[in-house]
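Entry:
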Amino acid sequence: MRMGIATVVAVAVLAAPANALGGGFATVGLSSLPDGLELGERWAVELTVLQHGRTPLDGVHPAVIVTREGGSERREFPAQAAGRPGVYRVAVTFPSAGTWRVVVDDGFSARHPFSPVRVGRGPGRASIVPATASVGGGPDLMLALAAAAVTGIAAVLGSAALRRRS
């Protein structure tokens, strides 16, 4: 079977968005939340990184990133392999009082935001700020679908233009 150049181009262009997501994604779970910590106290947490939400992911370099509201302070805490597949350990210290955004860079495909933490002065003053909306860390499927639709339309128009030339 012989395919024309327009068909080959259309197939290649339509496959691009699928290949972009084909590398997969990872999910991250936390063993604990920093609820109740005192200012300056270490939050020892284990991260569980799963490829496609199922398979433990080894050989990546995740990190917990905390940023003070307003962006005035930012700290990154690299995690270390914990000796179990897909599990990494990290100790986080919030350097000052205030509201801190918590993000985990899974070291593979994305950054995963978690609920902000409000850190105050005095014992047991850290608390989780209630989230008004949950933000996922996986691939943006709507963006991928929109890109596929635009690419498909471009392929059809390109194919029609090539047919007119012939």
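The chain has two domains: 1-24+140-166, 25-138.
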